[in-house]
Amino acid sequence: IELTLLTQGDRYAFQGQLEAGKIDMITTVPFIDPLLTDAQFASRTSSGSHPPNQWQRSIRPDRVKQIGKFLDKKKSYLFNEILLHADTDNDSIDFQYSEKLGTATLTVKFDFLKNHADSFWTDKWEGNDLRPLWIIDGQHRVRGAAISKRGHKLRLPILVTLSGKQAGKLALPKKEIAKLFAEINTQAKPISDEHRYYSGNRFKIPSLKKWNFGGDSSGLPNRTAYKLACDLCSEEGGPLFNSIRLTPKRTEREKKNIVTDIGTWMGKVSGWLPRFHDNNPDRMFLEVTAYYTAM
Q1: What spatial distance separates the first Cα and last Cα of the chain, rounded to whole Å?
Q2: pTM for this prediction
Q3: Which of 55, 59, 60, 281 has a beta carbon 3.0–4.6 Å from 178's, enabling a disulfide?
Q4: Could you give the C-alpha distances from 195 to 109, 144, 211, 232, in angstroms and in order?
């Protein structure tokens, strides 16, 4: 894959283009397990134990099919960039950069494939997706184009960020890659409100009013309210265990357990810190927990 350097301040990325079908062959998505219960999801937030390869939203098959059908039509195109990430420490990736020319070559070897029972090769193994590149933004466009007879041949513009030793000074820390996805989608609002709250809190993203989770005092009420919801939802045996919907609704049977959703919770509770608890998160945690326990 031939790439050209793009610089913004002290951060680097590379621009290029590649057929949609080939992008699909070499990319995975670091999505959050959609089968997590709200209590399990809350526990990760409360303990700060987020898996480094799980922070994206899950794919929506209906959107993939819609894009596939769209690209099957003549004169239908996708010119918006696909954002990818390559860890150059991965054995299946080779990165060569010419500082003089400001160009690079990214080579992906298909040795990541596993031979299953001497009958076929697969990119899935023991529940893991072995494809070496991450899709940071554009998973629905890539997967949709890949299932289209016409679309899989289209060359899509790509922007590639890097991590790993081969990348040297061009590397971007992986935690910033996750934050980049969150900033793109939280500000643009194509994702669910549940995921916006989660991303805003996890990466302390500054924004306006109800979406402000910035690391300064202005984001403290939202950060406190969200963590309190997660603490209460993950406390086994507690009054709100597994009872706050933190992720998008999945099945009808959830109605029996859910007392409230995170949107309603944030709308009410985020204002309590300055109004009732003197901007003291520890005091708020104790008093609100005691209130619900006594109910």
Answers
A1: 61
A2: 0.66
A3: 55
A4: 34, 22, 11, 19
pLDDT in tens, 192-244: 889 889 988 988 887 767 889 988 899 999 999 999 999 999 999 999 999 99
Token readout for 67 is 């894009």
